[in-house]
Amino acid sequence: MPPKILIVTGDAAESLEVMYPYQRLREEGYDVDIAAPSRKKLQFVVHDFEPGFDTYTEKPGYTWPADLAFAEVDPGRYAALVIPGGRAPEYLRNDPELRKILKSFFDADKPVAQICHGPLLTAAIDSLRGRRVTAYPALELDMQAAGATFQDAETVVDGTLVSARAWPDHSRWMREFLTVLRAKAPVT
């Protein structure tokens, strides 16, 4: 059986930041599950930039079913974790079941890929202290408050943690994550 990868997300996650790693990892031969607060059809969003706006806009995106509720996840069954961005991390960081899942991946030093606002989740479990990360640039102060060294770069690799700013950085983010993942949990 191929190694399993867990994606943790919820409503208002950025569509591309869920679907791109989901499809890319499956293409590579990994088995991928999506977990959310409950088993339901999730409503993702599309963030884009419009002329004259100081920040991004948000439009409805894809819908996709969650395979598992956070309470059903056994982290020991998974080789790695993916944390998409969007607005979902703003409320997901308050979920105690998700915080337990996240902590188990970091405690076991398993590969973790995070993007955009996803690092709000890893900050919530104090797993960024002393690490180098990137995130959506507006989170620079949040990352520093979490004890991380923020780098405004396409992708930052710090051990088994691979972070990226946002969906325009997908190619480099997944390329770097797959390098870490293949070393820790190759598809045979």
UniProtKB/TrEMBL annotation:
Domain DJ-1/PfpI: 4-178
Organism domain of life: Bacteria
InterPro entries per UniProt: C56_PfpI-like, Class_I_gatase-like, DJ-1/PfpI
Entries under CDD domains matching the protein: GATase1_PfpI_1
Protein family (similarity comment): Belongs to the peptidase C56 family.
PANTHER family, per database record: DJ-1 PROTEIN, DJ-1_THIJ_PFPI FAMILY PROTEIN
Protein name: Peptidase
